[in-house]
Amino acid sequence: MKKSETPEDAAGQGVLQRAFAVLRVLADAKGEKLRLTDIAARTGQAQATVHRVLQGLMQEGVVEQPAQSKGYQLSVAFFSLAAAAGTHQSSLRTLYRPAMLRLSGMLNDTIFLLVRSGFDAVCVDRVDGAFPVRSHTGDIGGRVPLGMGQGGLVLLASLPEAEREEVMRFNIPRLHHLGFVDEISMRVRIKECLELRYARSQGQGVFPNIAGLAVPVYDPNGVTVAALSVAAPIERISDERLPLIVEMLRREADAVGAQINPFDPALRRPSQYLGTGNGG
Q1: 192: Cβ–Cβ under 8 A, 6 or more apart, which residues?
Q2: Which keywords accompany this UniProt record (predicted)?
Q3: 8 Å CB contact between 63 and 72
Q4: Residue 12 has what pLDDT?
Q5: What's the pLDDT tens digit per position in 83-131?
Q6: CB 126 within 8 Å of CB 230
Q7: pTM of the predicted model, to two decimals?
Q8: Domain range 15-80, CATH class
Q9: pLDDT over 50 (residue 219)
């Protein structure tokens, strides 16, 4: 105990630390209900202590014990509190801009950052390379149906299966007029994307001389929240150059993805956060 610290202060800090230890264990459970004995074992605290902590957290509404269950879990109120903390400011573009500049400088190609918005993929940032390209999304703020282009395909493939099926049911008719997108070809490409953990386009479609490659961006919970993509003249994304591009994109995506706030408002309402990196 510090000289200026009273016994009450020390006791309060101890309670706070024990409470956060319990919250972290429940968060790591990822929705699984944990019994008192499990929580005590994982936190290294006595069962009586954990029981008191849980009762306090339940009184505050951030932990709940569903009816007829001996397990505990984080409540919706806890997630609402976390979401509210990220409501007013977005750091997504601020985080990724240096990585995109590095990639564009090293590859000499155009780099895109895309996120999902409903049934679409939205370009939230773009850094142009030395070789001019045309893309489906165009400039910042452009959008395409999920499944179109390498970035849109990564975002579609990463969805839970039931949700992905609903998006496909809605989007395939939107893409039918292009003549090169149908249900069979999209399912084949999704399967390849899930196996390879990247999506590649090789000049097929609207821009036959342009190729692209995209990798998923995972948040700290391992959920795909964005796609990091490169587009270039088709000869620049050759089979020989492919491993280097994939490795570079993944390295930057993983390094910055670990810093993403899963509740970043730009992931839910990207169109409102295209003006500046701080949501202004």
Answers
A1: 199
A2: DNA-binding, Transcription, Transcription regulation
A3: yes
A4: 45
A5: 565 555 667 888 899 999 999 999 999 999 999 999 999 999 999 999 8
A6: no
A7: 0.71
A8: mainly alpha
A9: yes
